[in-house]
Request: fold
Amino acid sequence: MSSLLNTEIGIPVIDLGPGNRDAPSQLLDAATNYGFVFIENNDSGVPTQDISDLFDLSKTLFAAPVEEKQKVSIGSNQAGKNHGWLSRGIEKLDPATQQRADVKEALNIGEHQNGELQQPMPQILEPHIGDIKHFQDSCHEFCQRIFEHLAAALDIESGWFTSRHNRTKGPSGTVLRLLYYPHVDDVEDGVDLRAGAHSDFGSITVLFQLPGQPGLEIKTPSGKWAAVPVDPHSNMNGDAQTNRALPILVNIGDLLEDWTGGLLKSTVHRVIFPQSEEKSDRYSIAYFCHPLDDAELAPVPSKAVQEHATRTGKSNTRDGKVLTAKDHLMERLEATYSIK
Ligand SMILES: O=C(O)CCC(=O)C(=O)O
Ligand SMILES: [Fe+2]
Reply:
């Protein structure tokens, strides 16, 4: 495998370029064993300049006055929409264990439909909406490439996943999320977290991080937390980054785990205040990819999936009815945010 292993957990790094014929099986292997994988950001990735520009926009946004962000707050949207700005103190990703809310702010941006974003945007981002939509498109194409590779590895029709994520066909729960974790001077060890332990809801998540801003951890099968590097080719902080683009982190979400009868793993993760960098802010950008709302989560017609599902007894039916992607998302949102 064209992969390097990082110090602690060994999340594989895979090149999806045409030169790597083993990419599908490597991807499947990473998805079933770790639930997390780094993808080299080359021609088939997301342009590095666009990533850097969106981080700049994100910094400008979160530095804007609270009143401006408040105008587009998640609470001002229709219940269940999951779009808009979340102020610090609102979200607790692990309510069962966390004493305090996540120390973060976020802006959730839903998909554009017929070229239009479906929510009010902060004024400061208005001149950049074209760039944001373009970024969503690049992320979506990147996800579709991953789905094609997964379909090849699972030996199913090439378009099986991509057709169910074809956003020209209808709305989905897909969200582009800008995240800001401010530094705080009085972090209480063992109490304060930037993001509590959770797994993601959708099919796959694409995560962009910045050099020198570590903090993401995943839960290993032994129950221990392991740090995820910013740059798996460099040290844990990503400090020694060369001119090469950072690999892009991808993880499997709950929906894809359920859809594949548990074969692909949705791994629990969290964001901590790393000891060495306690005084620095962290910015990240996540693209939570979901199938079309109407997509039925009938079992993936792959032998490997069927065999695994039989072993685990996992299914996506409720009272004999197959869930749609929207049903699945609403179940998870209700459980996390008490949205009715
Ligand atoms: O900011 C990060 O690194 C991870 C964020 C995350 O896991 C989430 O928002 O679901
Ligand atoms: Fe997450």
Summary: The chain has one domain: 3-336. The longest helix spans residues 129-154. The domain at 3-336 is CATH 2.60.120.330 (Jelly Rolls). DSSP finds eight helices and 16 strands in the chain.
